[in-house]
Amino acid sequence: MFKTKNLVHDISNVPTAWVFEHFCKLKEKLTGQDVKIKSMYNPTDKIPSMCIYVGSNEQYKFKDFSTGKGGDCVTLVKELKGLLFHKACQLIIEKYNDFVLHNNGGYDVAEFKQQSRYKVTSYKVRSWTTQDQYFWTQFNIGSKLLTAHNVRPLESYCMTKDDNRLCIKGLYLYGYFKADGTLYKIYQPKTLDKKFIKVTDYIQGMHQCTGERYLIITSSLKDIMSIKSLKLKHVDVIAPDSENTIIRSEVMEDLQTKYDKIVVLFDNDDPGIKAMQLYKEKYPFIEMALLPMSKDVSDSIKDSGAKEVRNRLVPILDKKLNNG
């Protein structure tokens, strides 16, 4: 370890690890590991939903899945304290210099070593069962939709980190595959704390689009298939990796040229609504739609039936697509 001994006057000279340790009141020193804590922005968060992780530039960042907030250390403080960017920088510098003066002249900066993460390295596909049929059909999703979107049941999958290997088996495991057969996500609906395991980036449903007039952006592949099961006219449906992943600007600009209207339809809970608002702020040309039923389209179908959901959803979409 070595110490930073001098007072700083530039935000770039403040260790990002210190900012997260101090403002998130972490009990462990950040030396390259990922840390998951309860949301700093959502006091009702019962299960830790905020991840502090190492970004591509070897600087710490955060993602709060409870509220959709995320970014670097300055964004953390800016959002936490309700400050403008330059005021957040000033506060960080002030607090860091105060820390330096009261802690023997410096902050111990550990040798940084980004820790490896578990990655899916193998999987085994199995045959469909009656349990699978019951699970998917409650969302009005049948074999044709599952096949069209390359969903396959898994017997097991294995994850590896360094020399450690972890293998998982279960009745309700599903692999989401690209058209070329590449696994991009694992869905395990009965595992409450880790329903999805992301393998690689992928905009779900993109390769199943047929060039319709309108586009719906929803929150999951399950919702894509549930919406398609309603047989809406002139509509394509896609979904990002998650509600908290905003589709890149170049992709959205290309989609804008292909569709008459684009509507975002996420979950009707607070995170879903905030995620829709972020989309609207970033892409003013899109419309927001809210289905006031169960949390999402697929759960609404399960709870109220496909016919009722279609009767409620069609007028909502018609207003957004035809009137704006």
What's a quick, concise take on this entry?
The longest helix has 17 residues, at 85-101.
Question: How would you summarize the topology of this molecule?
Answer:
Elements: E1 2-4, H1 16-23, E2 35-37, E3 50-54, E4 60-64, E5 70-71, H2 73-81, H3 85-101, E6 107-109, E7 119-125, H4 130-137, H5 143-148, E8 151-161, E9 164-169, E10 174-177, E11 183-187, E12 196-198, E13 214-218, H6 221-229, E14 235-238, H7 249-258, E15 261-265, H8 270-282, E16 287-288, H9 297-304, H10 306-322
Parallel strand pairs: 13-14, 13-15, 15-16
Antiparallel strand pairs: 1-6, 2-3, 3-4, 4-5, 7-8, 8-9, 8-10, 10-11, 11-12
Written description of the protein model:
- The protein is an alpha+beta fold and 324 residues long.
- It has three domains: 2-109, DNA Primase, Chain A, CATH 3.90.580; 117-202, no CATH class; 203-324, Dna Topoisomerase Vi A Subunit, Chain: A, domain 2 (3-Layer(aba) Sandwich), CATH 3.40.1360.10.
- The protein has helices spanning 16-23, 73-81, 85-101, 130-137, 143-148, 221-229, 249-258, 270-282, 297-304, 306-322; strands at 2-4, 35-37, 50-54, 60-64, 70-71, 107-109, 119-125, 151-161, 164-169, 174-177, 183-187, 196-198, 214-218, 235-238, 261-265, 287-288.
- The strands form four sheets. Strands 7, 8, 9, 10, 11 and 12 form a six-stranded antiparallel sheet that branches. Strands 2-3-4-5 form a four-stranded antiparallel sheet, covered by helices on one side.
- Helix 6 links the parallel strand 13 and strand 14 (235-238).
- The N and C termini lie far apart (58 Å).
